Amino acid sequence: MEQPTSPRSSKDHVKVTHVRVAGAEDIHVTAVPTQPQADARTQTRSLYAAVLERLDDASSLRIITERVYGRLAVKEAFLSARAEVLPEAGLSADGPVTYLEGAPVDGEALAGVHLTLVRPGDADVEVTPVRDGDHTWGFRVTSGKLRRVFLSGVHGLRAGEVGVPAADQARRMFERAEALLADAGLSYHNVVLTRIHLRRLLDWYPEFNAVRNPFYRKLGLLKDDAPSTVPASTGIQGKMSDDCECVMDVTAVSRGAGESCPFVKLRNPLQDEATDYGSAFARGARVELPGVHYVLISGTASIDETGATVHVDDPAGQVRRTMANFETILKVGGASPADLYHAIWYVKEPSFAGIVRQEMAQHGWPVFPWVVARADVCRHNLLVEVDGSALVRTA
Length: 395
Known about the structure:
Layout: E1 14-21, E2 24-31, H1 40-53, E3 62-70, H2 75-88, E4 98-101, E5 103-104, E6 110-120, E7 125-132, E8 135-143, E9 146-155, H3 166-183, E10 191-198, H4 201-219, E11 232-237, E12 246-254, E13 264-266, E14 284-289, E15 292-300, H5 315-332, E16 340-347, H6 352-362, E17 371-374, E18 384-393
């Protein structure tokens, strides 16, 4: 099916979601280009300008996370344009950016961006960088007993390294995340969500799991004789550079000392547990904070309650089953697609994007700036995957 190349309307290319959390204002943004055929600089300037138009007093905000999906060939053009447009609105362009080869299905530049910004409201809200030497890996947001850490682009390479085996990079990636969290006053037990991208996903995903699983067992997150407390996660193809085999973003939360697990693990009645087939992640997690529940959904595909891929070689069937799985786990968490603030579809072939859009429209999913990027999914016979984050206000 051919993809639409006409400009998107202003109502569906940017979504800005505001919520108060323990004295701070969280602002979540999803945005996709309105002109898929434009060059990277034009897309970047128009995309960020459209976002900034929807933000009041941008100079009082701090970008906490920034995930960009696009072709690596245009990364420098994107960063250059971004460094121009953000300071024009009084926003710092110095924070870490997770830029991934999430190739658009339309055009040759960007597929979309996910941003989270924080505006400190109360005097006791602090936003501080998480650094290792001169490198900023993310931010810690503190308000009273509530502490949140957001790490971006964590990988397992040292400066100038090449040729490091993939498994070694994965081990170092987790160890670096653990050390950064400790420096920020949290631990890996506080992790509620990871988004992990592997450059050659289908070549070494089992080997990656053979690194992650023992690491989680060592920490006590994965046990044979007790329920696991592994976080929600996506594991998908994505490339940060030719030398980097894996990279991840991490969200961690502490609501007070002595808490054993900061989230409610979500189980999907339409799917088995990923841990049953050797992949250490929860299908979803609900994080209950003052005034809001965050519902974080892992990468979701056409997998049934036995762990089998269903609708093999049938992209429309896989899209429908993926949607059913995704909508069900959102419901288990107390949310729906209308509550999403970040979401992305990954498609094995660009032609599947049209099927995704058609099925969402037919099933009444909301108008939303759905990021759609080309990527391999974790099994050769899986054709599409979706992940997303939602919030439900409780006060």
